């Protein structure tokens, strides 16, 4: 198995040769972000060591990026693509690069509609075109359903943000607001009354650090660990 | 970096104390949640399966639903830690630890996308042997791969966590738990070779309280550990000078009269003429060498003995001040004044009542220890009591996890860094 750093280097070279420049990368997170003029492209990398859950997570993240109008690519080992196929990626316009020890190949284009056809494939008869059009219509309908679901999620997100802004404004204006039991549903948990009495409200904002963290000399001391 | 931002939102502290397990993420606030560090192994039967009780071990607040007869408890209720340690081959104890950790992390596992597991910071006794670290990392690895609950993990000594929580970079931490007391000097990092431990903690105070109850005619109640603990917390006193306190009690019996009504029951405990023994409860933790304790040893109460766990000797009869001095004197001379200048007492075992009418007779732990150290020739001592000692270790874990970079990997040579389970 190739070291992750080597894989990253080859993939970066691939897009660099196409006029992109890497602007951010994380081996641990498994991504490289590129830019070319105003175009931004994010490449997420899966390797042989990745679990099914990790693969699924990466695919979902890429689908979200694509749905949000970004250019998103996945890089997979060639053996992996033979197991999972490329159908889903084409539907969701997620670009796919496959790699092995020797080369990197763009299997599905993520910037404008897929792999370029080779010369022999242009001679399609009308019946086949009709079949493909029907198939495409069906896929587009499914895609529209998926986008509608994403829109609904986006709408909910906007509403929550608006509520949070109103809440903050109320606090700033001095209105006493009863703190909800949990503003962050992701951290909600059941608990006994006795425990709740000891526990302050949850879901603090990132910038509201606990008092024991503020002005703590250990923070700078420990952050220097390398 | 995404990784740092992610980590700072998903740092999770776990303080594995002998009595209690304290846990919670950075977002929980200033205090962690707390459950007893114990697990119940229910009888496996068709009925239990029908009722949905299919777990091999039940932990947390659900344990109270299973508490049955005393005989059954002895075999089914497991307290995994003894003096902050778990035996290497005690599989049931390790199952309890795993289930507690799973319960804690699952309670706070967020829904939705983007969660890659918690950055867990665990605290173990400063004297915990290496196999405990190895076993805990194995448990974390299993929870990471099976349920995706953990991204990375690290383990730190409890005294370091206390120093961090108190924002002190040079100090001596005296962490007194149920089973033992650890004295650990810190100077920007734990000075591992200078840790000195006592084989006495809150459990020792419970033991003398049980003897006192027996002598007062409450032998039946003395068997119930949780009741004994409550009696200790309610009537136990720490004398500045034991001789003086006993004399005061004999001359002023009404002032020291100890009566405890067990909440929710008809039981009232009255020590009567033995009320002076309240002072023995606190004294025993700080110094068990007074001759009055000999009578208890002669009548069967086990004398705290020196025990060796791994490479560390836990002293049974060394008094608290001598323990601190022995620890500090293992450090460079230049550092010693700085260490004496900031002695932090942590652990519920240092919280003693000081009734107003007994001022000067019954004192707080800081006063007692300052006096003991001065008597041994140590000047310029500052002893402080952790304001919320039961939470200090967890808070230190959170700060540690927040500050240490995600890319700082675990090494066994340094015994620090992150053990990564996911990229």
TrEMBL record, chain A:
Residue ranges of coiled coil: 133-173
Region listing for Disordered, in residue ranges: 176-212
Compositionally biased tracts (Basic and acidic residues): 176-191
Alphabetically ordered keywords of this record: Coiled coil
UniProt-recorded name of the protein: Uncharacterized protein
Automatic annotation (TrEMBL), chain B:
Protein name: Actin/actin family protein
Superkingdom field: Archaea
InterPro entries assigned: Actin, ATPase_NBD
Provenance organism: Caldiarchaeum subterraneum
Pfam families from the UniProt entry: Actin (PF00022)
């Amino acid at each position: 198995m190739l070291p992750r750093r080597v894989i990253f280097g080859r993939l970066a070279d691939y897009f660099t040769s196409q006029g992109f420049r890497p602007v951010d990368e994380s081996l641990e997170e498994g991504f490289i972000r590129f830019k070319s003029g105003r175009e931004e492209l994010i490449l997420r990398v899966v390797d042989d060591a990745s679990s099914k859950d990790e693969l699924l997570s990466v695919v979902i993240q890429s689908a979200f990026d694509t749905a949000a109008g970004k250019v998103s690519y996945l890089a997979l080992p060639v053996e992996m693509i033979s197991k999972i196929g490329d159908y889903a990626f084409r539907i969701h316009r997620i670009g796919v690069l496959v790699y092995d020890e020797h080369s990197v190949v763009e299997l599905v284009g993520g910037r404008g509609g897929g792999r370029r056809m080779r010369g022999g494939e242009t001679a399609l008869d009308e019946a086949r075109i009709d079949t493909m059009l029907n198939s495409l219509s069906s896929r587009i309908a499914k895609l529209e359903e998926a986008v509608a679901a994403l829109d609904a999620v986006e709408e909910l997100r906007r509403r929550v943000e608006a509520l949070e802004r109103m809440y903050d404004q109320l606090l700033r204006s001095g209105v006493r607001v009863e703190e909800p039991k949990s503003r962050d549903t992701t951290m909600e948990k059941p608990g006994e009354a006795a425990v709740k009495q000891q526990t302050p409200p949850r879901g603090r904002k990132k910038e509201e650090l606990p008092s024991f963290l503020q002005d703590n000399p250990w923070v700078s001391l420990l952050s220097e660990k390398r | 970096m995404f990784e740092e931002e992610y980590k700072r939102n998903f740092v999770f502290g776990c303080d594995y104390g002998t009595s209690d397990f304290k846990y919670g993420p950075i977002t929980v606030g200033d205090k962690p949640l707390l459950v007893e560090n114990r697990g119940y192994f229910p009888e496996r039967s068709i009925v239990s399966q029908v009722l949905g009780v299919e777990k091999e071990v039940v932990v947390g607040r659900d344990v109270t639903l299973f508490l049955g007869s005393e005989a059954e408890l002895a075999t089914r209720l497991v307290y995994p830690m003894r003096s902050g340690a778990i035996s290497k081959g005690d599989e049931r104890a390790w199952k309890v630890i795993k289930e507690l950790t799973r319960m804690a992390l699952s309670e706070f596992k967020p829904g939705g996308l983007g969660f890659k597991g918690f950055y867990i910071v665990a605290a173990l006794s400063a004297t915990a042997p290496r196999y405990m670290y190895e076993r805990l990392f194995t448990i974390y690895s299993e929870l990471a791969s099976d349920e995706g609950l953990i991204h990375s993990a690290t383990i730190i000594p409890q005294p370091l966590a206390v120093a961090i929580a108190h924002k002190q970079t040079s100090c001596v931490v005296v962490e007194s738990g149920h089973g033992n007391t650890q004295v650990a000097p810190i100077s920007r990092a734990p000075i591992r070779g200078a840790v000195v431990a006592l084989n006495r903690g809150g459990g020792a105070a419970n033991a003398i309280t049980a003897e006192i109850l027996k002598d007062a005619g409450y032998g039946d109640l003395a068997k119930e550990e949780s009741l004994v603990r409550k009696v200790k917390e309610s009537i136990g006193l720490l004398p500045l000078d034991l001789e003086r306190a006993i004399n005061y009690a004999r001359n002023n019996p009404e002032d020291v009269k100890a009566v405890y009504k067990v909440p929710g029951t008809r039981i009232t405990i009255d020590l009567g003429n033995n009320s002076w023994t309240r002072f023995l409860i606190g004294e025993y933790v700080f110094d068990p060498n007074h001759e009055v304790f000999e009578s208890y040893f002669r009548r069967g109460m086990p004398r705290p003995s020196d025990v060796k766990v791994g490479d560390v000797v836990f002293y049974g009869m060394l008094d608290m001040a001598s323990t601190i001095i022995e620890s500090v004197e293992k450090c460079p001379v230049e550092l010693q004044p700085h260490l004496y200048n900031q002695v932090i007492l942590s652990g519920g075992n240092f919280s003693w009542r000081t009734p107003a009418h007994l001022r000067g007779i019954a004192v707080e732990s800081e006063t007692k220890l300052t006096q003991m150290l001065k008597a041994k020739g140590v000047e310029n001592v500052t002893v402080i009591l952790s304001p919320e000692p039961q939470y200090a270790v967890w808070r230190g874990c959170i700060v540690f996890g927040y500050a240490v970079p995600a890319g700082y990997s675990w090494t066994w040579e340094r015994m620090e860094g992150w053990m990564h389970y996911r990229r």
